[in-house]
Design goal:
The chain is of the alpha/beta class. Helix content is 21%, strand content 27%. It has a nine-stranded mixed β-sheet, covered by helices on one side. Strands 2-1-3-5-4 form a five-stranded mixed β-sheet, with helices on both faces.
Amino acid sequence: MHILIFEDSFAPQLFPATIARPAFYLNVGSYRLIDLARRFTNTVEVITRPYLRDIVNLDYPDLWSPECGLRSEPVLILNARVVPNVVTLNRLIDFVHAGRTGVVSGERGIACAIFDKQNFLPHDRLGVAQLLGIIADMNLPQLDIQIPILEYVHDIVRHQTLIMNDNLEDRIKSGNYKEIADGVFTADDMQLGQYCVTDTKAGPIIFDSGVSIGPYSCFRGPVYVGKNAKINEMTSLKDAVTLCHTSKVGGEVEAAIIESYSNKQHHGFVGHSYLGSWVNLGAGTCNSDLKNTYGEVTMEYSGRKVKTGMQFVGCFVGDYAKTAINTSIFTGKTIGSCSMVYGFVTTNVPSFVNYARSFGQVTETGIDTLVQTQARMFARRGVTQRPCDIQLLRDIYEMTKHERQLANEPLSL
């Protein structure tokens, strides 16, 4: 079997979560789509945005390329925005093994397609437009399966709460964990502090290898704490939380995803939110995830108002963004990549800015400053800064210039 994951034109709509990573790198319910795909086959191919290719190729040097030979049969095509729910993916794999062919498509684009002959695809690197045209020309029947896909960034939180238990149950079955209390599973080399409290009535709790848990902490499942994460004393994690590897967390976190290498070490609340990688939240930073009217949250995307259909929606923070102490983020706000925010965040924040709107100032941050900051951050965690990491920052800076300009001048309010 050959799995091909492609990013379509809607992937950037998941801003700021996908500004610095492919959509198939997004953690939802503790899994990423690319990792699930690689579980099912050794021949995984990806089509991603050009400026992300070098990062992906270095992360996964064994991905399929034309030099690997023919694609294996049958072929499963997956949109990179497909929610990484292990139950849904297992059903699709069952379809493949049963010889089913077909497509799942709708207003949000093609979610997946299955066909049994690899020679429908030319033996070279495909572009996304070329791939979609080939699938359209096949006139495949619609498959009788629902495949949820991410349309906007708030959908990450929506599906995190829906699929968390399915994915954690799969982790328990396929991983090397021991049950130390009812519904609490740990790897061998994790450290659990004294006087911690766990509640697994709503879902399991998993602590992966290398995790360090401080004393007097509280966990209410479903919760997944990734490898080498550090949980400070008196931390509260509850109701569908994913902490990715090498993150550091304190305070209160509810129904949120915190990607790898991010810090929320101090007191403060993060709820129904998504934090990218290398994010640092200053002490006392809190976000609101509920309107005072208790009504549906509406978010703004590129000047358009979009109803989320959700009562609880927090904030969505791009990679490398940082907050000062006691920053307050209003309900349903996005913070762009590489920005520094202070005070009250009452509007969406562009990328590469110093945002102190409540103090009357929003200014642009220079790219060279961010490259130097990245080098320092990486060195503190023992990570080597690669040329592709620097180039990614420069690419994002150029791509987001329009966010920081008024009448073609650098933003300065």
